[in-house]
Each structure stands twice: as C-alpha cells, then as structure tokens.
Amino acid sequence: MNTVSPEPAASGASPRVVVLAGGISHERDVSLRSGRRVAEALRSAGMEVTVHDVDADLIPALTDTHPDVVWPVLHGATGEDGSVRDVVELLGLRYVGTGPRGSRVAWSKPIAKTVVSRAGLSTPDFVTLPQSLFRELGAGRVLEAVVARLGLPLVVKPSRGGSALGVTLVRDAAALPRAMVDAFAYGDTALVERAVTGRELAVSVIEETDGPRALPAVEIVTDGPYDYDARYNPGRTEYFAPARLTEPETAAVMSAAVEAHRALGLRHLSRTDLILDEAGVPQFLEVNVAPGMTETSLFPQAAVAGGLDLPSLYRGLVTRALA
C-alpha cells in the first residue's frame, strides 16, 4: 500500500493530492483500477499524488500529512454513500466530488428516481421490495402483483450499488424469483422497474465556472446484458462516443443529465445512465457520483470525445475542489 508523503506543499507548489481507491465493497477491483488511472493522469499534469486504500491507516495518514485535496475514487458502499466523504469533512480536508448529503441521495436508486421525477425528468415506473417484507408477504403473491402492475419485461437490481452487480433483465415471470435472489445477494432491498426499450446512454457532467456542462453522450451496444463482465472486460461491448444521435436527441439527453446533476445536489462531476426510448424521451435510470475511471469507463471516453485532455481535466477538478 502506498503511504502519504509527509512533506507539506510549499507556497506556490503543485497541490498534494491523495486518491482514495479500493475499500471493501464488491467493486474494490474496479476502484483500484480507477484510482491508478486518475493518479497517473494527475501526475502527468505535474501534481504530487499518492494512492491510499480505505483502511485503519487512512485517518492517521490524512491527519499527519493534511493533503491539499482528497479525491475519493471509490465505487460501491462507503465510497458513494457519503460516509467516507463525511469523514474527510470531519478532518477538515477539501475533496473532489459531491458532498455527503448529495451522495446519499444519489446512492439510493429509488430516492434518486423520485427526486429527478419531481424535477420533471422521466424515469421507468418502479417498486422497491425489502427482503424482509418480501418474505413476510409471500414471494409468490408479491411477484404476481409486481407483474400485474408493471408488466414484462422487468429489470431487477439492488436498490444501492453499481457496476451492474445483481442486475437481471427478466422477460419471463418464471425467471423473476431467481432475479430477486440475485439482487438480494448485494443488498437487503431490491428495485424492480419496467424495462424500457431504446438506446442505452451514459452522459457525464462536469462543473465549470459558469455551472455544470454535459460531455458528449456515450452510446453502449453489447452482445447481451450490459453486466459486470461487459463493462470491464474489453471485447463484449462497443461504445460510440459521441453517441449516434440527432441534434434534438443530443440536446435532450445532455439537458436531462445536467438537470439530474442539479436536482440531486451533485458537485464537480457525475455520470447519468439513461435510456433514450423509442419516442425520443430520455428515461433516467441512475446517477453515479464516483464514475468509473478505468480504460473502458464511460466518463473518460466522454471527456476524450469532447476534445478534453484527461490530465488537464482532472487537474481542473482538483483546482475546483481547492476553490
């Protein structure tokens, strides 16, 4: 594990940045890869960077060295639910990304969908089912009611989490019980939403001096479900950056991502996942406050498609955190 350099930054020197990566979530490996990529980019931009895991040594290291900026590149629980950001604030440190409150809202898919819906965005109809209630009421009867209300196909996913872990597309009611079991393996509450047909898109947002700006949408085309393997192992997924959209479609999805960023109270950067349905309406699925930064991740692809230099972009985010 890397340790934090004890040397304070000299006046006028480049900011000292600690990138947090790893943690103990199901997405640890992805976080480590993302953290390395961010650190490499910041170093190439002339910054002093250290990568640190989230473990018992973290608080003493941050307290002793007091870096100028912390960048949490943590995926999954603790990294995106606001808790690590709470601790960073307790230590009086500046950091890149959304604050604890906005992180908690975005981390819960049902809450995020409710907030953006109230802000005027479209999102697929859904229900949330805690595992305890699911068992108490009887799985069979509950699932019958779900199918009767939402129809088929359905998407079942953990109410919290990322990287498509525990997510299943259900086309046949007979497959629904297994999908629920898979979702409950990653959390105690499942979200079941009506599956929307259309183009799968990811729209990243960065904040500039005049407010949030959407980067070019990235279109995702897979040979099957856009699951964990398709996301992080090259070959199964084809990306189009920018997405193959008309000008009105481009404007619609970019506006939706910016509106979601604002409505959820996000900061510095985010990535909104949505489906552009057959009527040309962006359907909000979820938002990420700590987008993946690996070689196959969507945020870096969007930045490059927008003509941005990653080291310069990441340095700019650090500068905004300092401001």
From TrEMBL:
GO cellular component: cytoplasm
Binding of Mg(2+) 1, residues: D273, E286
Chain positions recorded as Mg(2+) 2 binding sites: E286, N288
InterPro entries (UniProt xref): ATP-grasp, ATP_grasp_subdomain_1, D_ala_D_ala, Dala_Dala_lig_C, PreATP-grasp_dom_sf
The record's free-text note on cofactor binding: Binds 2 magnesium or manganese ions per subunit.
Domain ATP-grasp: 113-319
Gene3D superfamilies: 3.40.50.20, ATP-grasp fold, A domain (3.30.1490.20), ATP-grasp fold, B domain (3.30.470.20)
GO MF assignments: ATP binding; D-alanine-D-alanine ligase activity; metal ion binding
Annotated catalytic residues: E27, S163, S297
One BP annotation, GO: regulation of cell shape
Cofactor(s) the protein needs: Mg(2+); Mn(2+)
Principal EC category: ligase
Family: Belongs to the D-alanine--D-alanine ligase family.
Function: Cell wall formation.
Protein's recorded name: D-alanine--D-alanine ligase
Gene expressing this chain: ddl
